[in-house]
Amino acid sequence: MTTESISQESTIQYARKATRDTAKRLARFFSIRLVLQMLTIVIGVYITILVANMGGYVDTILRASIIEQANMEVSAMVANTNTPPDKRAEMVKDLIAERETLAGLDKPFIRRSFTHLWNALTLNFGRARFMVSNHGSRMVRNIILERLPATLLLMGTSQLLLFAVTISVALAVSRHYGSAWDRIIVAMSPTSSIPPWFYGIFLILIFAAWLKVLPFSGMVDAPPPPTKWQYFLNILKHLILPAGSLFISGFFISTYSWRTFFLIYSSEDYVDMAKAKGLSSRAIERRYILRPTLPSIITSFALLLVGIWTGATLTETIFLWPGLGTTIFEAISKYDTAVIVGTTIIQAYLLGITVFFLDFLYAIVDPRVKLGGGR
After folding, report:
1. 63 phi and psi angles, rounded to 5 deg
2. 27, 312, 313, 349: which one has the fewest Cβ atoms less than 10 Å from its Cβ?
3. Which one-letter DSSP state was computed for residue 288?
4. Are residues 202 and 341 both part of a single domain?
5. Residue 284 and residue 104: Cα distance in Å, rounded?
6. Which pLDDT value is given to residue 205?
7. What pTM did the predictor assign?
8. Domain shared by 152 and 102, yes or no
9. Are residues 232 and 299 in the same domain?
10. Whole domain around residue 333: which residue ranges?
11. Among 101, 103, 94, which Cα is nearest to 71's?
């Protein structure tokens, strides 16, 4: 065997060994990441269950409600009869015991909290205590699925538009550092500390109450338009104010953040070298500014997608938008823990999955990222 063939065989063996080592490191890394993500989700969901039940205090509120309802029902049943007081008290006691058993209040709260945890992790959300869907169903899954499209429409429209517009504007402003537009963005960025529902109130006063060109609230007129095209246009008309308030609230601070980010990368030495080589501004932005910031852009976009699920609670409530934000607000006000936990666990799963797969995306878009601790 020649020296050249020995060298080639050694190179092949070394490459195979390096591939196996890399695969082992990646498998170990992602296994640990998966276990940590699941552990985080379990802890977060259990804390949510404890908070949603106020550490068991909601049981006291529910017992008081059951006792009140039982007394009212028994009083109505024996109103026109000569039922003795002891018999009436026994009927109330039996009814209360039956209702508490149905609600699971005959078991300790700690024991039920772990049952709630298992049901939540397996997406078995059960039935809502007080809330119902438009079709009369108390299943939490049906309530969430019914309200989800409205939230996806509102949050998807506003946040995706905000994401695309702010990055484009920030990139344009970063080309002209110190210009009038740049100073306006910097000066107006503190206005994003005002919550979107506050902008929503002003938009309602201006465009609905004063100018009377847009509807006050809701998702569609009552009665709804007869044709599908008119129905679609009517939804878009109702969408303008709530989506506009969300867009305005985040526009200046988001543009300012991206503009600062782009300025940091545009001042690097390799950008000055690219300019000295005569590369066009578009090529420099694409290769030396946008590409290094791509991991941050992907992270922002992924977390934006997760945030779409939760909705904007107060903004949806102000505009009577029938989405998940309004649903969460109603569930909190009624102590409907099943709905609160149901919406929270879905967001926890989405966040965990998003963070887990971001590692893969980072490795694809940024070759500097090394997974598994390899050299």
Report:
1. -60, -45
2. 27
3. I
4. yes
5. 64
6. 92
7. 0.71
8. no
9. yes
10. 146-365
11. 94
